[in-house]
Amino acid sequence: MTDTVRPRRSALYMPASNARALAKARSLPADMIILDLEDAVSPEAKVDARDAAIAAAAEGGFGNRELAIRINALDTPWGKDDLAAVAHAQIDAVLIPKVYRPTDITACNAALADAPSRLQLWAMIETCAVVPHLDALAALSAGTRLSLFVMGVNDLAKEMRAKLTPERTPFLPILTLAVAAARAHNVAILDGVCNEFRDLDVFSAEADQGLLFGFDGKTLIHPDQIGPCNAVFSPSADELARAQAVIAAFDLPENAGKGAIRVDGRMVELLHLEQARQTVAIARQIAAQG
Q: Which residue among 38, 56, 124, 176 is least crowded, i.e. fewest CB within 10 A of its CB?
């Protein structure tokens, strides 16, 4: 149930326990806002943060941004109550952390049986246990609310006891597998956060790597990361021009019914036409958002 033409370049985590952060989120140019009940909230503030997130969603003011709530893991004292509480919140999605197996998502989907049909399930990919099940997990999108993966590289690094370097070398196979599984089943996918928010050159390099891998966008931990992230994951002027040229060429009467044609000296096929239409659709939505 993913919306494949909706821009999802930037997804900013905001601690639901911080009233100023919730207010500021409404004015930031991120495509997505994730109100966080998990990592950014201390144990003693969990219940109040839950109430604050639901109240903020009800108050609205987030415009065209997708709004999600990341609940606590289901095996914590707060997880199941979080899931029940947000089922009827005025949000687009609930983000499930610490997914270990496909049955975690089917259980969440069952728990949301009475929730509005618009409510999506998003899954964090951040445990070693889920890696062998990525394809099976993504396949659940056909019969559940699952529509998006979010990488959690920090937690993977902790579980794997791996070093988290700027190149992210230990995690490259997992990033590849996650993107492949997502694409195989029409699931959107966001890259994990970059812990460096002061050096935006470091951030931009990691965002470029995410684009190279095929991610739709990236999760963020600081508002200063939004601008560089949107720039990386927006179609460039050259990319948009090429996409428009491909579409125009296939629309010519002499190319009707053809599966492959020549455009600007290059051979392009119907798969390139599909990519071109996707690029143009995303660019139009970005422009409409201002």
A: 176
Distance CA 270, CA 246 (A): 10
| Residue 183 to residue 180: CA distance in whole angstroms | 5
Interatomic CA distance for residues 263 and 243, integer angstroms: 10
Reported residue count of the chain is 290
- Among 142-151, 200-209, 258-267, 281-290, the minimum mean pLDDT is found in 281-290
Pairwise CA distance, residues 231 & 103, whole Å: 37
CB of 92 closer than 8 Å to CB of 62: no
> What does the pLDDT average to over 193-214?
95
**What pTM value is reported for the model?**
0.91
* Residue 110 near residue 144, CB atoms below 8 Å: no
**Three-state SS at 128:** coil
Contact between 118 and 141 (Cβ < 8 Å): no
Distance of alpha carbon 220 from alpha carbon 151, whole angstroms: 11
Residue 147 to residue 144: CA distance in whole angstroms: 8
Helix (H) or strand (E) holding 212: helix 200-213
